[in-house]
Amino acid sequence: MLNYVLRRLIYMIITLWVIITATFFLMKLLPGNPFGEVAAKLPPENLAILKAQYGLDKPEWQQYLQYLGNVAQGDLGVSYQFPTRSVVSVIKQSFPASLELGVESLVIAIIIGLTLGIVAALRHNKWQDYSAMIIALIGISIPSFVLAPLLSLYIGNKWGILPPGLWEGPENRILPAFALALGTIATLARMMRASMLEVASLDYIKTAKSKGLSTRKIVTGHMLRNAILPVVTILGPIAVGVITGTLVVENVFVIPGLGYQFVSSITTLDYTMITGLTIFYAAILIVVMFLTDIAYGLIDPRIRMSGRR
Amino acid sequence: MGKPILEVKNLRVSFKMYAGEVQAVRGVSFTVDKGEVLAIVGESGCGKSVTAQTIMRLIPTPPSYIKEGSSILFDGKHEIAKMTESQMERVRGKDMGMIFQDPMTSLNPTMTVGAQISEGIRKHNQKVSKAEAFKRSAELLTLVGMSNAEERIQQYPHELSGGMRQRVMIALSLACNPKLLIADEPTTALDVTIQAQIIDLLRDIQEKTETSIILITHDLGVVAEMAHKVIVMYAGKVVERGTLDDIFYNPRHPYTWGLLRSVPRLDSDKNNELASIPGTPPDLYAPPVGCAFAARCPYAMKVCKEIDPEHFEVSADHSAACWLNHPDAPEVEMPVGIGRGSHG
Asked: Which of B90, B107, B120 has the CB atom closest to A204's CB atom?
């Protein structure tokens, strides 16, 4: 197991390096420069000083090596747009809200989504099944940029049940977390239902029944664990998507998160910010994928075995 | 052989589908005595497995329905056809065990072998502790011929070969000393050398424990190895019943002849093609009016297509549902290669 973890760790570092390299050079290929319109008005000498300050006067391979060295020490550089702030400090400041929102909506989505899926499968072709699938269909069809403003407008403003925005107490969390969760609820519910139905038709469920086990025991002891395997596989990417894909919801509910920073850095061609946030998101993705694989091994002994060797 | 352990009378099972009703089993009757091995043979799709699984009520309702007038009397007192699900749970695994066709898929891949066997033990004996149940599981694995049983119970199904898994399956079905064991094509998914081992094992266990067995198969070799009585099923009905000798040496139904002729023989001329029964079994959405086999039967007469034959008794244990056994029917020569060393 330790061997497996170590090997995965090395792969993770290599993956991250490839991403850093690709992002770094792709940035350089973008037209324009990070100093924007100001650059055109500046006398060439001043621009040269500015470039020298950010190390942009050196050849690209030198810039690359230096950047790589900085990243290895945990320094993602200083923002071009806000010269007083480092990328790391921006992440430190904005990420907690995004992370919290993401984790909360993920927990909501897993609990509601899996429950809906399980109920739908156990009551296959009955009204419970149809209702759950209608909810899932709605969830898949309504994008968060439609749902979030509607929730904020009606539940927040018109009926005043919950606060329509901002990021203060726990009551501020409910609407954005739900708005972000609905799509995931739908995906998980449909997936869990399909998976449960497939497992229910398998031979070993008949074996379990032939032992005289009750339906409840068959479901909890034999079906759930096997049915959840394919769901766990997609849970990794889904988790990353939810944690990093909070942009729209953050905007609607005025939440000081990282999603907003990312988009604004792209429009202003803030090299260090874009590269830094990309690396940060990639690192999250890689770590979550790794955790998913570990979880997968814990659930399925067949995978655990191949990891041990 | 003693008292009957299972009496099935006029069992009819249908599946209600969108396209209509599939009459999978259309009035099957047979008895299994204590300590007896009954083989049910027939082609795929003739209702063997449905019959077997209905005896344990393993097919969910819907889509399957046991029709009015069917009776499955178990051990002289349990009317299986009318029992509730919770009553069935007490019978399944305890009084009846089942072995399935494909050992690769009939064990749960995420549970150790020991956990899967002891689960059944603990279900029916609440007082047994987990450790005791595992110990008993290890004993069962030894009984079915697995070495290192103590280690095996900690293993997962994917760590075992197909033959080993089928042994586990047999151990699992024997966990509570059932009075009746239903083996649904227990050797079909195994390779030939393993098949022989599993059949030997089943026969051995049957002799030791005197469990009654219903053996479902399309392999007549397996039937000859261990069955006492045989019923031949076709299109959801029993077309011939008899002792092992009756069926092998004095078969009275052209379908049985066909089955026997399609078995490869060591002494057959290698230039002769292996015989097969032309055609396919009828559509059970709309079963034919007369004898279901008439369309494929080389001896079919006019009456066969109009009236479904009742069983004609050949002897006390032997009967066949074929008009050829009617006193007025023309004499028909049995095809060559069957019934050699015939008693009658």
From this structure: B107
A177 three-state secondary structure: helix
Task: Give tens-digit pLDDT for A241-290.
Answer: 787 767 788 888 888 888 777 777 877 778 788 888 888 888 888 888 88
Helix, strand, or coil (residue A21):
helix
Mean pLDDT of A204-229: 88
In A, minimum Cα distance to B160 occurs at A302
Residue A244 lies in a domain: yes
On the question of pLDDT at B110 being above 50, the answer is yes
In this structure, what CATH number is given to the domain that contains residue A122? 1.10.3720.10
Residue A14 is assigned to a structural domain of this protein: no
Any domain includes A73: no
* Contacts for B186 with CB less than 8 Å, ≥ 6 apart: B99, B100, B101, B166, B170, B198, B199, B202, B215, B217
Residue A278 in any domain: the answer is yes
pLDDT score for A112: 93
H helix intervals, chain A: 2-29, 36-41, 44-53, 60-72, 87-122, 127-141, 144-151, 171-200, 203-210, 215-217, 224-244, 247-252, 258-267, 271-299, 301-308
Compute the distance between CA of residue B154 and CA of residue B140 in angstroms, rounded to an integer.
14
ipTM of the complex: 0.82
Contact (CB<8Å) B173/A210: yes
Which of A210, A232, A309 would best serve as a mutation to test chain B binding (most B beta carbons within 10 A)?
Answer: A210
- Residue B210 pLDDT more than 70? yes
Q: Which of A211, A229, A304 to mutate to test the interface with B (most CBs of B within 10 A)?
A: A211
| Mean pLDDT, range B198-215, rounded to an integer | 88
| Closest residue of chain A to B157, computed from CA coordinates | A302
Q: Are B144 and B205 in contact (CB under 8 A)?
A: yes
Partner-chain residue, chosen from B91, B110, B173, that has the shortest CB–CB distance to A301:
B110
Mutate to test the interface with B, among A202, A209, A305 (most CBs of B within 10 A): A209
Q: Is B84 on the interface with A (CB under 8 A)?
A: no
Task: Give pLDDT, residue A60.
Answer: 82
Give the span between the Cα atoms of A145 and A151, in whole angstroms.
10
pTM of the prediction?
0.77
Interchain contact B135–A (C-beta under 8 A): no
Containing structural domain, residue A169:
88-308
Position of tokens 């501020």?
A: A172
A307, pLDDT greater than 50: no
pLDDT for res B102:
86
What is the per-residue pLDDT for B40?
A: 93
Which H helix or E strand runs over A84?
none
What's the number of domains chain A is made of? 1
Over 70: is that where the pLDDT of B128 sits? Answer: yes
CB-based contacts of B230, cutoff 8 Å, min separation 6: B38, B39, B40, B41, B223, B241, B242, B243, B244, B246, B247
Per CB-CB distance under 8 Å, the chain B contacts of A210 are 56, 58, 92-93, 96-98, 173
Has residue B340 got a pLDDT over 60? no
- Contact check, Cβ <8 Å, B123/A213: yes
Identify the CA nearest to A258 among candidates A18, A10, A89, A49.
Answer: A89
Q: How many other CB atoms sit within 10 Å of the CB of residue B139?
A: 12
Domains in chain B, start-ordered, CATH in brackets? 4-227 (3.40.50.300), 234-325 (no CATH)
